[in-house]
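Pipeline run #58 for the internal structure catalog. This entry was flagged by the ingest filter as a single-chain record with no existing model, so it goes straight to prediction. Upstream metadata was stripped on purpose; only the residue string is passed forward. Reviewer on rotation: M.T. Logging verbosity set to normal.
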Amino acid sequence: MITRDIISTMIKWAAKPSRKPLVIRGARQVGKTTLVAQFSHQFDQYIYLNLELPDDSQAFLDFKNMDTLIQSIFFIKNKVHSKKKKTLIFIDEIQEVPKALNLLRYFYEQAPELYVIAAGSLLETLFSQNVSFPVGRLEFLVVRPVSFSEFLAATGEHAALQAMRNIPLPEFANEKLFALFNIYTLIGGMPEIVDHYATHKDLTSLKPIYESLIVSYIDDVEKYAANATQVQLFRHVIKASFAEAGKRIKFQGFGKSNYRSREMGEVLRNLQKAFLLYLVYPTTGAELPLQPDSRKSPRLQVLDTGMLNYFLGIQKELLWATDLNKVYQGTVIEHIVGQELLAIDHSVLNQLNFWIREKKESSAEVDYLYLFEGKVIPVEVKSGSAGKLRSLHLFMDLAPHNMAIRFYAGEISITEVNTLAGKKYFLLNLPYFLVSQIEYYLTWFKNKINEK
């Protein structure tokens, strides 16, 4: 079973004196139910309710008052309601009874001794419907695909995981971590895939699982679509998104279609609500606050890089690659870096950012932006020498600081760089398997600069 880093965040939630019900969001099949089952080991009692089942949903459908609801829940699950027992209640597939979402507020107000978590595979569709929503009385966490550190733990690579968490990384660990990261990049972070690989260590046996995952997402579109025409739109977008991932897209004619911008934009935004993809809009500023410009073309990030690789048929190239930047024009390594940056923070507000300058004589683009101690740190995913990072130089000319990061297929180093305009800054070069450690390395980097 995969041990998820998010459990530590959930433990902190449970320890809060004024704890609110926790709503877990995320795409289908990213392991929300399994995650809560693991977390339940922290409690004396665990009550699991699946509102797709009539027996579990009836108490919410017949709601009269909170006392009766709580008594019904404990009765049907043959549990004892006692303040002496630390009880976790997990309400799964809550979208099946929309008014149950509003009832969560009463757990917070009238039954604070209970620990309540809710989730739903299509929960995000409720937020755009006329559903009463208890604003300010819930907390949220997002579950995303398995991160590289979780992959290492799941596959028993504990020494590699420990080495990766040492700041700075010992040089002897580089080669093995690059090899492991190649496998992680190849298979991605869908829990079923990672669990199967961890058990069997057989890449060839993963094909039917990828097929099942992709088909299940395509077959799910009826639940998102308002009519038969939208069903076709959703199917087209899910298939086309793999080929367009990592690129800046236009809604008009998306995926080589004849669909119009308005209808395509609506479908893409709905799939973003369901965490199946992300529309990453660029920013043009180098300081806080970051203001993504929704008038410009967004870059497309899909749920999981492993599914992207499978759909595109590039898995063999990745398996033997010595530099992932040289596979599929660098799109795959940029995409997995984005996936790792998203996995760092389980907040609903966590999002990817990138920078552009669009001028006829000199356009530029920086792959990602990372916020650190009030600074907007540019992050490039590139091969080659620092002198070739022209877009990074242009960004640093605007930035009110002197720190930048490059992820690449090399060892840890710090180089002093001068922009064409003559500004000196420091570039932290990190192996691309260290994305999850970016916060710790920025602190280390800052201290190293101060020593100079």
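catalog note: The two ends are 46 Å apart (CA to CA).
catalog note: The mean pLDDT is 92.
status: ready for reviewer M.T.
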